[in-house]
Each structure stands twice: as structure tokens, then as C-alpha cells.
Amino acid sequence: MRWSNCYIPTLKEAPADAEVVSHKLLTRAGMIRKLTSGIYIYMPLGLKAIEKTAAIVREEMNRAGALELSMPMVQPADLWQESGRWEFYGKELLRFQDRNGRDYCLGPTHEEVITDLVRGEVRSYRQLPINLYQIQTKFRDEIRPRFGLMRGREFIMKDAYSFDRDEAGADKSYWAMYEAYQNVFKRLGLRFRAVEADSGSIGGSFSHEFMVLADTGEDTIAACTGCEYAANVERAEVAAPAVPVSLPVVGGIEEVPTPGKHTVEEVCAFLGVSQSALVKTLILVADGKPVAALVRGDRELNDVKLKNLLKCDELELAAPELVQKVTGAPVGFAGPVGLNVERVFADHELLTSDGWIAGANKGDTHLRNVSLGRDAKIERYADLRVITPADACPRCGQPIELTRGIEVGHVFKLGTKYSEPLKCTFLDEDGKEKVMIMGCYGIGVSRVVASCIEQNHDADGIVFPPPIAPFEAVLCCLDPKNGETLGKAEEFYAELKAQGVDVILDDRDERPGVKFKDADLVGMPLQLVVGGKGLARGIVEAKDRRTGEKTELPVDGFAEAFRTWRAAVRAGWGL
Ligand code: ATP
Ligand code: MG
Fold first, then answer.
1. pTM, whole model, 2 decimals?
2. Distance between CA 170 and CA 162 in Å, rounded?
3. Residues 289-328: pLDDT tens digits?
4. Site to substitute for ligand 1 among 22, 94, 447, most atoms within 8 A of C-beta
5. How many CA atoms lie within 13 A of 295 on its CB side?
6. Looking at ligand 1, which atom is closest to the CA of residue 209?
7. Which residue has a Cα nearest atom 18 of ligand 1?
């Protein structure tokens, strides 16, 4: 490809609404253009990066035995009603009607459609297992579609779905996908980590998120410095604390006035005690019923853990009116003593001490010397809080580190969540009709491109890993009007092509500074400069975009020298 034949509309300024670096740089590099909120046009170079990513995903899916198909984006409402998600999915599901008044939605994901397909096609255990996937545009009407390709409303996803006869088969399908994902992200040259994620009602370690490590990530990962353990903080376990043999002896409860002190911080500062001396009481609503959760004052409740413990579908903080009703006090004074809530749960850390400060369920008042065992009715102590950097690894006890990541992929064992309501069954060897066990596996292909930029960029622009770069190499011809220089550049171009390198020849009649700036902005990993002066000295200048390191490749023996240099640059990317 020649730059003069390509459309690469680079910009000096990022769009005003771009908040994250990938959005700024993708736009400035001429790779995307916004059509409307959360909906982008993939420009020629942007599309190339996406297609290179998709090609690697496709290869690894095929290698793992998954079969590609393509499902419609428009889905009929009745399938969603059958699975129960028509009511449940909320506003992210874009719904509309056709001319006959029938309801449809734009597919945010395809469990319903694939399950409907498989229940109609697969009758016998002989046809199982099967894993079907597609790489296709999804639509989710996200509330805050403001991060470019990171969180679009329209985006490209690879989604795969496995169907098995039994649990053992489903587990095997799951781990095959896990392996395939490891291969994909390694081959893409990204620094990533597979982390245990919340698997809701399935339990066990059957949900992993693949996270590209980047400071700008929305997710926080707790990763052990000693062992392989890594989990999304949403689910990271906190090991049960050692409970002392004897707890402090607690005197009688005392009321203390705390006028106008609502927050843990205010109360503790007012009473002159540490936040760890207080029990925080949260009132929540689980599937319509009030519950209470207690954690130490300096801790945060992990609502995913509570949700899983309660096995409920919806959990939210109670509205002030409900708090007033069950505590008899305004928000800020709830406590475990005399609380009018049937189910009270406490974080297991609260077993390690006693004699707490807590809300009095009375306006402007707290209690001292609360003994949970003596004064409160607690249904269960469990791991309910969010992990902190001061906690130890729940597996090996070594320190953990919190790092940030961007979720680019998700593997999930679904069990019979969809096959049951949609009656996706088969006849097993024993002649019995059984429900298939499913798994689903997504990769946000367009988000991968964005997150690769979040991870790899500098002040000059994008630093693309070679496998994702729209062009792996740029050959910059400094003086394309000079027939001899251009002729030489074309020779090198042909050599790179012969070596299987996707290369662009910058043959524009522009100042060298402009060309170098554009090459850096678009982030081509291998940059070669062909100019009259260098040629006179018998060299071509080569720059590794990632390290900035410059090398001179000899014109005589160019092919071999380039091959070696390319291998070294790729090795720097871990490829
Ligand atoms: P998130 O928590 O970021 O909204 P999700 O849990 O909704 O993600 P899944 O339903 O598991 O995501 O979708 C599979 C993959 O699709 C995700 O891992 C992510 O890479 C990608 N993805 C999801 N939503 C978007 C979006 N709005 N824009 C771009 N990619 C997305
Ligand atoms: Mg989402």
C-alpha cells in the first residue's frame, strides 16, 4: 500500500468530547470517526486493526474446534420473553416494532438465538458437544457511551456458545475456551491477566475475565505477588480471619449523642475513635425484602458477595424512607441492636473483636459497647467485604497488589440458565431426555483495539503491537521526487512484502517532519527511512516505535538484516 493511495486523515487536535487516550488517538490517527454518541465509523486503518485482531481470534477459535456462523442482529421479542430477559435486561436492550406492531430488539448478545437454533437442530447426544461462534456487531444502549471504542453502543464482539451432554463435558469446553483466550491475547502482544470473576449462581471458578492491564482500566484486579491467584475485586475473596480465643469483656451498652453526625468519618472524628472501632450497618433490599449487612467502619461492603450469599437477583441500597421505617431513624444512625429487619448478615472480620460503636436506630444517637453476640441477632457471618491492598492472598497468604485492567474477554459457564427455560434438550445414550449444559465466551474485538492503545501509547501517539498494527511497517521515502531514491524504496518495499510484512510506503510529497510525526501517531511498530544521504552511506535507518531505538540496516544484505531486526523488535513485544 502507498500512503498516497490510502486515506489516513490524521488530526492535530483530539475531539473535545474524547476523555480517554484511545479515543483521542484513534480519532487523531484517522482510524475512527464518530457518527453519533457511541456509534463510530471504522476508517480504513481502524478497520484493518480490527480485522487483524479478528483474524487471530478466528484462528484460535477454529483451532479449539469452534465453528463459525453468523446470526442476525435483529431478534424477535418472543425468544427474550421465553428466557425471561425481555423484562429483566433493562434499557440497554434497544427495542422496536416492525410495521405489523411486532416487538424486536437489536442483539446485545445471542444466547436466546443460539439456544433456539440448537434446540431445533440437535436431537441426539451424538451431535454433542458443539461450540458455535460468530464475530459480529452488537448493540447495547449503554448509559455512558463516552469512551470511544472502549464502550460503544455499537461494537464488534466475538461470541461463542458451547453445548454439552453433561457437567464434565461442559467443564472441558470451558477450559478449552480459556486456553484459546490465553493464546489469543498472547499472540496479540498484550500484557494481560486472566482473573477469576463473579460466576453468580453457578459458583466455582467458572467465570474468568481477561483483563488488559492498563492504569486507565475501569476494573480493579487483586493479584497475588506470590502465586497465580488473581481476581476481580468484585469477587476477590478475603480469607477468614483468625478469631481470638477470648474477646474483650464488654460493659453495658451506653447511648452517646452524635448530633448531625451521619457518616462513619464524622462519628468517629466526633467520638475520637478509629473507624475500625465502629460497625457500619447497611440496609438493603434483596428481591423486594429488606436485609441488613454489617461491616467494620473502615471497610466496604462487597454487594456481589452478599448477592451470592442471598442467591437473589436484585440487590440495592434501601431508600431513605425504608431506612426510616426499619430503624426508626434517618439515614446515618442504623445499628444492629433492635433493628427491625429479619435477616442480618455480618462480615466475618467482626468476629475478631467486640465492644463496638454502632448506630442506635435513633436520630442523632450512637451506642458504645455493643457486643454483637450478646446484643444483636445475626443470621450468619461470612466474607462480605471488599478486599484491600493490606489483605493477604486468600490462597497462599502472600501480599496482594491491586492493579487496574480493562475487560476484553469473558468466559462463563452458563449451566442450564438458558437451556432450561428454552427447553434445549437432547436424547442421551440411555434414551432419556436431558437438558444441555451451556457455556458462553465473548471477546470485545473493537475494545481490544482500544485497550491495546490504552496500554501502549506515548506523547507522540499510538505504539501498536505488531499483530494489531494496521501496518506492521512504514517505509518512509524522504524524497519521492527523486527517481533513484523512490526506486530503491520500492525495492525494499518488495522485499518486505516478500517477507510477509504488511507495509505502507510513505511516498507523499511532504516534509520529513510531517511523515515522521504521522508514522509515530499511527504507531507503526517498524519504521524505515530511505533517503539520499543514507543511501549514499549504504544504509537505511530503522526505528523501533516502542523503544525509540534507532539502528542502521545495510543496503547490501538488507533482506537478512531486516529479518533479524524485525525478529528482535517482535521479541521485545514478547512475540
Ligand atoms: P462491561 O462490564 O464492560 O459492560 P460486560 O460484562 O457487559 O462488559 P459481556 O457481556 O461479557 O460484557 O461481553 C463480552 C465482551 O464484550 C466484554 O468482555 C467486552 O470486551 C465487550 N464489550 C461489552 N460491552 C461493550 C461495549 N459497550 N463496547 C465495547 N465492547 C464491549
Ligand atoms: Mg456491560
1. 0.89
2. 8
3. 999 999 999 999 999 999 999 999 899 999 999 999 999 9
4. 447
5. 19
6. 18
7. 409
